[in-house]
Amino acid sequence: MKTLIICSGGLDSVTLAHKVAEDKDRTLTRLVSFDYGQRHKKELSYAKACADRLGVPHHIVDISSVGKALTGSALTDDVDVPDGHYAEESMKITIVPNRNAIMLAIAYGMACSNGDEAVATAVHGGDHFIYPDCRPDFLKSFATMQGYALEDVAEIELYTPYASLSKTEIAADAGALNLPLEETWSCYKGGEIHCGTCGTCVERREAFDLAGVKDTTEYADENFWRESVKKAESA
Amino acid sequence: MKTLIICSGGLDSVTLAHKVAEDKDRTLTRLVSFDYGQRHKKELSYAKACADRLGVPHHIVDISSVGKALTGSALTDDVDVPDGHYAEESMKITIVPNRNAIMLAIAYGMACSNGDEAVATAVHGGDHFIYPDCRPDFLKSFATMQGYALEDVAEIELYTPYASLSKTEIAADAGALNLPLEETWSCYKGGEIHCGTCGTCVERREAFDLAGVKDTTEYADENFWRESVKKAESA
Fold first, then answer.
1. B97 vs A112: CB contact, 8 Å cut-off?
2. Are B71 and A144 inside 8 Å of each other by CB?
3. How far is B60 from chain A (nearest CA, A)?
4. How far apart are CA A191 and CA A195, in angstroms?
5. Which residues of B touch A65 (CB under 8 A)?
6. Mean pLDDT across B97-115
7. Buried b / exposed e across B173-186, counting CB within 10 Å, b at 16+?
8. CA A155 to CA B149: how far, in whole Å?
9. Which domains occur in chain A, in start order?
10. What is the interface size between A and B, counted as CB pairs within 8 Å?
11. What does the pLDDT look like over B30-60, one tens digit per residue?
12. Is this complex's ipTM strictly greater than 0.95?
């Protein structure tokens, strides 16, 4: 089954790309990344590196004009990125309204144009409590909508193998697939190396720790995450 | 109810804008147009004129990078635009895959950011047989999907008053609302005036004729449409 993957260059989507590449029932056809005007574009180069490693084309779709229209998010505006654990209220600032619906709809259009049979995305269970457009009900309704939108035109599966799994299970998968962990980018800040203090850095370190996978990534702050996890657990 | 309208500058969406502007239960907040790399951008200036007339902001969202990614359509590629009636097989070339899902998802994101309570689109019954993403089943499933995507964030209605009406009924509405018909653009070609021979010109002339509304628009070919309609009827 010819499969297009939405790939940000982060741990989840790069792991998914490697998983699909090794899946005998699937053929990885392309990686698609979105430039929605995020303040740093570092992660896009990690998606490109993944595509090169797996020998497939990498498409960057520029939706920065859309990003500008969708104000109010720390990912696109001049608002400070908060430090700390995802579970904290302050993390809500990182929501770009309707982002997954927009990216998935574009990916479906591209899949349709290119004759792909599946669109894969690495949304996972850990995202549910804060992002409604990562929840299973959303994903199911999105696939249903696409069935109607492309009726008589194409039948394209929405492949979301991590939708009910935790970040820890993805970290374990990454370890099992032997992918170069330092070749994935999670940090919300745009430094040379991972900051170690933003929500995604903390979540990433916690996941590798719980999965028992040795993390080869370099972090500016090596120890912040343990305190942050403790704080979230006692909240 | 604060209502955002997706407006192409065509007859249907300009009529819808005037309809919402006169609706006591609604407040028109903004018109949103999409530049998806269509070969001519003339219609966008008609959307702008409509926004100016009604005193609301006009947003143009540049998704031309998406247009490039979605190859295979006469609206964005270097393929000749076919002449004739919409009902003909040749009109299928004018389909941009998944276009409505993409535009609606972006419009929902903008509505969410701006505190709008409804997204309105002028899709109508005449589009059903060729465009699956204009059919009532699609629209209903799209609204359901958005309910999940923005759960706990916003509740935004999908307003589609023309979904079960014909182009003729929209033409009648345009007449009743007294809007300047020559200030709407339907032609798929990019000439100085409407060509009168492409699918949308033929459909437009037929609709005004059936509605008994005097069409003040100038056409390069005044008579082609009658022959084309006859041809479609006898097919």
1. yes
2. no
3. 9
4. 7
5. 61-63
6. 93
7. bbbeeebebebbbb
8. 22
9. 2-81+96-181 (3.40.50.620)
10. 150
11. 999 998 776 667 889 999 999 999 999 999 9
12. no
Q: Within 10 A of A190 (CB to CB), how many other CB atoms are there?
A: 14
| Cβ–Cβ below 8 Å for A102 and B102 | yes
Q: What is the pLDDT of residue A75?
A: 43
| CA dist., res. B124 & res. A189, Å (int) | 45
Task: Indicate the pLDDT class of residue A49, thresholds 50, 70 and 90.
Answer: very high
pLDDT, average across residues B212-228: 92
Kindly tell me the sign of the dihedral angle through the C-alpha atoms of B75, A58, B133, B88: positive
No. of H helices and E strands in chain B? Answer: 8, 5
Contacts 24+ apart (CB under 8 A), B126-129: B126/B86, B126/B166, B126/B167, B126/B203, B129/B87
d(CA A162, CA A155): 22
**Chain-chain contact of A69 with B63 (C-beta, under 8 angstroms):** no
Q: Taking CB atoms and an 8 Å limit, are B101 and A146 in contact across chains? A: yes
What's the rounded Cα separation, in Å, for the pair A66 and A105?
14
Nearest to A34 by CA among A76, A78, A87, A93: A76
- Does the structure show a pLDDT above 50 at A27? yes
Q: Does B92 touch chain A (CB under 8 A)?
A: no
Beta bridge partners of A157: A118
Average pLDDT of the residues in A175-185: 94
Mutate to test the interface with A, among B65, B103, B119 (most CBs of A within 10 A): B65
A98 in B contact zone (CB under 8 Å): yes
